[in-house]
Amino acid sequence: DKAITSLIALNKLSQDNKLAGTPDEFIADVNSNPNNHELRYKLAEAFLAQEQKEEAIDQLLEIVKKNRKWEDDKARKKIIELLTAFGEDDPLTANTRLKLSSILFA
16, 41, 69, 79: which has the fewest C-beta neighbours closer than 10 Å? Predict the structure, then answer.
């Protein structure tokens, strides 16, 4: 059932994000090192910890756009995990799928 899958994924995300820090800890570093994907990934996790889903997705999409294969497709896999957690009814899911497709198939 999709609702159960979504709940399980949300619970996992919640546990993953407890130690993420705050976006303020990473924004300046990411701005001065825009190609440092590890920093950008940590910023995305910090946004998730603050329940700023769209901002997190934007950071992950930026990694995919710059280097899809970074750490074995880590950013793309995280986006898929998030979309599963958000569920089909979340408007961000459809919008993110479109953005991800345009990056992957451009």
Answer: 69
Contact 47, 55 (CB under 8 A): yes
DSSP state of 90: S
Could you tell me if 4 and 35 are in contact, meaning their C-beta atoms sit under 8 angstroms apart? no
Residue range 16-65, pLDDT digits in tens = 666 678 899 999 999 999 999 999 999 999 998 888 999 999 999 999 99
Q: Which residue has the tokens 């996790």?
A: 45
Cα distance between residue 87 and residue 98, in whole Å: 15
SS3 89: coil
CA quadruple 14, 69, 97, 41: dihedral sign = positive
Measured between its terminal Cα atoms, the distance across the chain in Å is 33
Whole-prediction pTM value?
Answer: 0.85
Contact 92, 86 (CB under 8 A): yes
Cα angle value 95/99/104 (rounded, 5°)? 145
